[in-house]
Amino acid sequence: MVKNDERVLLTGPTGFIGGRLLRALDEKGYRVRCLVRLSEKLTIRGEPLRRDPEVVYGDLLRPETLSAALEGITTAYYLVHSMGGRTIRETKAFAERDRKAALHFLSAAEAAGVRRIIYLGGLGERSDELSKHLASRNEVADILQSGRVQTTVLRAAVIIGAGGASFEIIRYLAERLPVMICPKWIQTRSQPIAVQDVIAYLIGCLENEATAGLRLDIGGPEILSYADLVRIYCRVRKLKRLLIPVPFLTPRLSAYWINLVTPVPAGIVFPLVEGLKNEAVCRDNRIRDLVPISLTPMEQAICQALAEESMGPGRLPSVQSCFVSWRS
């Protein structure tokens, strides 16, 4: 059924989350408008959508380009952030870019009469001496919730899915290194979540008005360290790997080391690694009552990500693609 009364703006439609959310919104029958940067082109991967989205070109750092994108929009998804560039040096200015982008977007949304904004941020408490990356995510959440538009903030830790930086780092390290020299941050606890569950929560917040204006933690059913994620990956792939902890690898050195082994740029690895010094466990589980979904165990999430690597983004893999039995 087409939801003609809901006009949804999707920012970041070419990204890891945005591309999947576009497909999910299309399957639900929403009328979607995609805000695409002037230098990008929206490419639909996998099977064709039921309805082609409207594409509007603009730049969050150029506020004069935003009014056309937000005109007539009921709900807007804010899925953009400056994680980093190709090098660590390029990450230094990201917080200021994100601050300006959020302020411009909120101002344009208020002027256009947008009812709701849904923002996906990072999980971490201010009292935990957050990394610059997580602190910036919190600042963006504060900005978006400071105006007249009802803004829902979802806060996630590690998101596991094909093409996501966290999963690709795990995959390349496990596949290429029989012995891994691991810094102490690999033992930090987090509550990783499968990308399909993130999408379900993003859709659920759109469809449940009770989530408007709230700041909600989202996570999977297990509390795990990054080392646990590597071990689960190895178990799924039947790989024998040895993890050796060492105390002296700084986040910067870790980023360069990971960049040597994986195709993920150091400028993206660095903020991820720096954020791993902070425990990222859900302290507020209201989302489970507001948007009740069946959470994906991490073994199954990794299995689906592996299948999706070969099948292409946006397609649901089969159970037979995994080397282990999924737990019921």
From TrEMBL:
Q: Which residues form a coiled coil?
A: none
Q: Where is the NAD(P)-binding domain?
A: 12-156
Leader sequence segment:
none
Q: Which Pfam families match?
A: NAD_binding_10
Could you tell me what this protein is called?
Answer: Uncharacterized conserved protein YbjT, contains NAD(P)-binding and DUF2867 domains
The species this protein was found in: Thermodesulforhabdus norvegica
